[in-house]
UniProtKB/TrEMBL annotation:
One of its GO terms (molecular function) is 2-dehydropantoate 2-reductase activity. This is 2-dehydropantoate 2-reductase. Its EC number is 1.1.1.169. Belongs to the ketopantoate reductase family.
Length: 311
């Protein structure tokens, strides 16, 4: 199986490396110093499930790779539109492009460029990031991936990808016939968890330790679920309670990728997360004051980091 990883960062680098270990023909697409290190030394992963290194080809030009069976699309949400415009060289008649990104708008944006028939939805639960150029640090999380057709149907291409994931060490995967629900459930968790840890600049344990802050965490969940239901997504009444129970069990030192980007002067996925929920809420005339508060607090930081990245 031939796989291109478009955006070989924490998620794509880890999963791509594991699939290469399992025998897949993996090609990494990256940029900058990270690309230079990948070309020179391959990809190295420092993982709680066992460190490993694998030598795989890397490039910044999709035309160097050509059509693949699967494209793992793992760029940050703010790069989705630009990256989707570069997918054509990777996409053949039967290519599946699997988005493993945060947010609820990415699949639509990709489909606008290459056609909905090529796009799969995916949800990843993994704590990993680029520790240094060429090195992925995997610190934990379920390390699970859920994949599904956007129309909720069963398909051979989904099952085949899941089978390959199951061959790989340190990875679990499952097929879903309700991937839109999965995407919105994860969006609810991220908006609460990332929003509160970034807005307070404190780990989850501090948020849990204060009633008002923990209530805001819950209300962020509730708002996203209301918007999702208005958009036609099946989200049960138990969704919020299940996620709150999950959050209760997380390590008190837990932060989020949004907090990491904020504090490391990197571009932030704020518009793809809370911004997207606010836009959808306005379409359905739903009040989302908690998401608006997080967005208002973090927007100046996001703009500052964008300026620093470009300067």
């Amino acid at each position: 199986m031939t796989i291109a990883v478009y955006g070989a960062g924490g998620v794509g680098g880890y999963l791509g490396g594991r699939l290469a270990q399992a025998g897949a023909d993996v090609h990494l697409i990256a940029r900058g110093e990270h690309l230079d290190a990948l070309r020179e030394d391959g990809i190295r992963v420092e993982s709680v499930a066992g460190d490993f290194a694998v030598d795989v080809p890397a490039t910044d030009d999709p035309a160097d790779v050509g059509p693949c069976d699967y494209v793992l699309f793992t760029v940050k949400s703010y790069d989705t539109e630009a990256a989707a415009q570069d997918l054509d060289p990777l996409v053949g008649e039967d290519t599946a492009v699997l988005s493993l990104q945060n947010g609820v708008d990415n699949e639509r944006l990709i489909a606008d460029e290459i056609g909905r028939e090529h796009v799969l939805g995916g949800v990843s639960y993994i704590f990993s990031t680029i520790a240094e150029p060429g090195v992925i640090e995997h610190t934990g999380g379920p390390t699970s991936f859920t994949v599904g057709e956007l129309d909720g149907s069963h398909s051979e291409r989904v099952e085949r990808f899941v089978e390959w994931c199951e061959r790989a060490d340190g990875v679990s995967a499952e097929a879903s016939t309700s991937i839109r629900t999965e995407l919105w459930e994860k969006a609810a968790f991220i908006c609460a968890h990332a929003g509160m840890t970034a807005a307070t600049r404190l780990p989850l344990g501090d948020v849990r330790g204060h009633e008002a802050s923990w209530e805001m965490y819950r209300r962020l969940f509730e708002e996203v679920c209301r918007v999702g239901r208005a958009a036609g997504v099946e989200l049960t009444d138990e969704t919020v309670e299940e996620w709150m129970e999950f959050a209760e069990g997380l390590d008190g030192d837990s932060y989020s990728s949004l907090h990491y980007d904020l504090t490391h002067e990197k571009p932030m996925e704020l518009d793809g997360l809370h911004g997207a929920i606010i836009r959808r809420a306005r379409e359905h005339d739903i009040a989302v004051p908690m998401n608006e508060a997080v967005y208002a607090i973090l927007r100046p930081w996001a703009a500052r980091n964008e300026w620093l990245e470009d300067s």
